[in-house]
Amino acid sequence: MLGDFWQELLGSVGSLLNTLTQSRQQREYVFVDSNGMPPLGLGGDAPDSLTTPSAQPAPPMWVQAKAQLETLQKADPNFLEATFLTQATKTYSAVLAAEGSMNADAITSFVTPAFLNRFQQRIAGWRDAGLTRVVSDVELDPPTTFKANIGGDVQCITVRFTGSARRFTKDDMTNLISEGSVQEESFTEFATFTRTAGSTTPKSTNGGGAIHCPSCGAPVDEGALRCTFCGALISGSGGTWLLDHASASAYT
């Protein structure tokens, strides 16, 4: 009787284990597709597309600009961002003054021919329409380098200028404001400066030494773009950045 009891007990346990094994196999079979692969999230190794990290977002524009400037400085060891920004601010301020005086003569050496042509056309348009441009009470914040591109035939650096000013256009007959506001307003503008690829910054520009005209050898004031004696462009030294365009958007 005791032997029969143990045989029955062992038989029951074996039957239970067999049932559990079959049930498990059935459950696993339900989750297997026609290719023998478990569906997503139901076991098995996840496909590479799920385990591979998503593409990293591009770094901010100013971070990319810093990298470009580091590359530029390797090719042009005398280039200093601070010195460049000082020159860029002087040029931008001169352009604002020229806009207010409606006279482009003072900026011909600081801008590209394309910029000068557009600027002169704009002034002619105001005059033809009987308008006067007013720019006053200009206050500029420290500028920042926004983006840079040193590849191709031309090197470009875009500077972000912020500040406040009274900047408007008025009708000469009625004194009505046709553009802008007589109130002092904040502004943001992006100015892009260019120079020929392969240009280098003269050592004297950053070292405080005298700068001489590459054509006649006459001494030239720092920041001057033309020799006051012979009229030659100082850009022959490779250190001149000319304002090519300015816009309220960094992408136009």
Biggest pleated-sheet summary: 5 strands, antiparallel
Helical element count? 6
Proportion of β residues?
Answer: 25-35%
Assembly of the depicted chains: single chain
CATH topology of the largest domain: Nuclear Transport Factor 2, Chain: A
Order of helices and strands: HHHHHEEEEHEEE
Helix content: 25-40%
Task: Detail the topology: elements first, then pairings.
Elements: H1 2-30, H2 48-51, H3 61-75, H4 81-101, H5 113-128, E1 131-140, E2 144-149, E3 154-171, E4 177-196, H6 203-207, E5 211-212, E6 219-220, E7 242-247
Antiparallel strand pairs: 1-3, 2-3, 3-4, 4-7, 5-6
What descriptors fit this protein?
252 residues, alpha+beta, Nuclear Transport Factor 2, Chain: A, 5-stranded antiparallel sheet, two-stranded antiparallel sheet, 25% strand
What does this structure look like?
- The protein is an alpha+beta fold and 252 residues long.
- The protein has 2 domains: 2-51, no CATH class; 61-247, Nuclear Transport Factor 2, Chain: A (Roll), CATH 3.10.450.
- It has helices at residues 2-30, 48-51, 61-75, 81-101, 113-128, 203-207, and strands at 131-140, 144-149, 154-171, 177-196, 211-212, 219-220, 242-247.
- The strands form 2 sheets. Strands 1, 2, 3, 4 and 7 form a 5-stranded antiparallel sheet that branches. A two-stranded antiparallel sheet has the order 5-6.
- Strand 5 (211-212) and strand 6 form a beta hairpin.
- The termini are far apart.
- Mean pLDDT is 78; it is low at 24-47.
